[in-house]
Write a structure and sequence with these properties.
By secondary structure, the chain is of the alpha+beta class. The protein folds into 2 domains: 185 residues, no CATH class; 96 residues, Alpha-Beta Plaits (2-Layer Sandwich), CATH 3.30.70. 70% of the residues lie in helices and 8% in strands. The protein contains 11 helices and 4 strands. A 4-stranded antiparallel sheet has the order 2-3-1-4. Helix 3 packs antiparallel against helix 8, helix 3 packs across helix 10 and helix 10 packs antiparallel against helix 11. The N terminus is likely disordered.
Length: 328
């Protein structure tokens, strides 16, 4: 009877305990993270002006290296569209006849190093010129077609570029040929530009990534100062550094995700601006505009990098400030 009375008294004391029991387990862990996420959204939305400024700074820092990555990828795709094979283009004189053009075609077709030969007549060249320029009215004033016939030859796969020099001399010495242009030079220049853009993207990615990290760290540091008294109370009642640091890691991730989303919007706007002139430029080379790389994988990677930079910046700021926190 005495034991029952004592147990009833203990139960009554526990029911009147002002401190609720601590729940543990995976469910409690998820509920705690959900609570922190809601508090983060409320804190950031309450300071929308500051948050927009942070998103803009992080977005600009991410947009430039990401844009250079897209440029490098499309330049690589442009050279790959030529199958990586060099070729040459021969321009005939205005007075070149069919026999002279046919003689050049026969020489190239008999050469084992040449895979394909195509001829563009003066009328076809004039039609292409009309299609890609606004000088159709001026051309109507001319008595004759000012454009010559041309010939394009592509080398077979696996052929060494060393065979180009004697082939150029051979074609250039034929009657009716005015000029021979080596297309390998253009491909090499595009490849060199792609390499420069790639290395520049890595350098700027490191520099601007560090800038985004510092911006996020500064913003999180301000958030820590705004909740300094709350952190002192948490430290006083025995909260661990991980528990005190967790809300600010959410701040950093939120700032990074917003910056990544804004970077994607800036890149999309730039692509819309340059789409029309770029289409005209590629059309002059008989190429269609196919912008590669701006897809779901790219967007996911951009958001992930932004979130990681934000979390890393928040971790640096929170660890430094919380370690120096003193309770008076």
């Amino acid at each position: 009877m005495a034991e029952a009375t004592e147990q009833h008294a203990g139960t009554r004391r526990r029911s009147g305990d002002p401190w609720p029991p601590v729940r543990t387990g995976v469910g409690a862990w998820w509920r705690d993270h959900l609570r922190i996420a809601r508090e983060t959204v409320h804190f950031v939305s309450a300071r929308l002006g500051t948050s927009l400024l942070v998103w803009l700074l992080v977005g600009i820092a991410l947009a430039l290296p990401a844009g250079l990555y897209l440029i490098e990828r499309n330049l690589s795709g442009m050279t790959a569209a030529w199958e990586g094979r060099p070729g040459l283009t021969a321009y005939f004189e205005l007075g070149a006849n069919e026999q002279q053009i046919r003689a050049v075609v026969d020489v190239l077709e008999k050469d084992r190093a040449v895979a394909d030969v195509s001829v563009t007549s003066p009328d076809q060249a004039l039609a292409e010129f009309r299609r890609y320029t606004d000088l159709a009215d001026a051309l109507d004033l001319l008595e004759s077609n000012p454009l010559p016939a041309s010939l394009k030859a592509t080398l077979a796969p696996g052929v060494e570029t060393a065979v180009l020099d004697p082939l150029l001399d051979r074609v250039g010495s034929l009657p009716g040929v005015a000029e021979v242009v080596l297309e390998k030079t253009w491909l090499e220049r595009v490849s060199d530009i792609s390499s420069v853009v790639s290395r520049l993207g890595v350098i700027l990615g490191l520099l601007f990534g560090t800038g985004a990290l510092l911006v996020t760290a500064t913003s999180v540091r301000l958030a820590i100062e705004a909740r300094l008294e709350e952190l002192k109370v948490l430290k006083l009642i025995g909260a661990t550094e991980r528990q005190m640091r967790r809300p600010f890691l959410y701040f950093g991730a939120f700032y990074g995700l917003g910056g990544g989303l804004l970077a994607a919007m800036l890149i999309s706007l730039c692509l819309l601006i340059v789409e029309a002139p770029l289409s005209n430029l590629l059309g002059s080379y008989d190429q269609e505009l196919h912008l590669a790389g701006f897809d779901a994988v790219f967007l996911g990677g951009l958001l992930t990098i932004g979130a990681l930079l934000g979390v890393l910046g928040a971790l640096v700021a929170a660890r430094q400030r919380i370690n120096d926190l003193e309770i008076l």
